[in-house]
Amino acid sequence: MSLEEELKAKRIQSESSRDKIQVDIMKNATQQLIREGIEKNAFGLGDEIPSFHLPNVHGQQVEIGDLLINGPLIITFYRGSWCPYCNLELRAYQNNLEVIQSHSAQVVAISPELPDSSLSHTKKLVLDFEVLSDAGNVVARKFGLVFKMPDELVKVYKQLNNDLTKHNGNNNWELPIPATYIVESDRKIAFSYVNANYLERVDPQRVVTSLSQLLTK
Questions:
Q1: Domain 3-215 has CATH 1.10.10.10
Q2: Is Disulfide bond tagged as a keyword (predicted)?
Q3: 160 and 36 in contact (C-beta within 8 Å)?
Q4: Dihedral of CA 81/122/92/70: which sign?
Q5: Integer Cα distance of 181 and 142 in angstroms
Q6: How many CB atoms lie within 10 A of CB 174?
Q7: Beta-carbon contacts of residue 110 (< 8 Å; ≥ 6 apart)
Q8: Which positions ≥6 away from 195 have C-beta within 8 Å?
């Protein structure tokens, strides 16, 4: 199945197993984000990303500039290991990692989770690329991706045992909207996908196609 098909199947499965009130609250929160136009304030094509460093799953600081020395970088922001749609997306990048690396590119995944949570996540999914911890959404905020969850949505997450205070190590109840970028060595964004609807993600194969086109210019 394609990533789109997997995401659709997961959505149908999740909605069928939850209370309709919970489903409606989650849908309404997403629609509100879309209406607010959060994507318009996010980094996009042609923007230059800032310099930053974040800890990986082993607590080692990773400088984004060091990764860009070797070629283009695919940066994907995801919500956390508790999000099944994020897990499907990261697994899809792992499945496409060999062809991505054949283009002298790397993948970096960033979430607000603490390194300990990210470590167990990485082991579970058997990921061979860097997974970085953006505690407090400091970097995601610079990219214009962060939103505060409404109280009724927080209540639903607690009912579903998705306690972000434990995953993220704070009481902010903030998340990044999913976003994927291809960044060139000059820090300029050559491909941008930002979507306030967390149920939708760009297929890594489309990212690979854009990467191929970039390298043949």
A1: no
A2: yes
A3: no
A4: positive
A5: 14
A6: 17
A7: 54, 75, 76, 77, 78, 131, 132, 133, 134, 139, 140, 176
A8: 39, 177, 178, 179, 201, 202
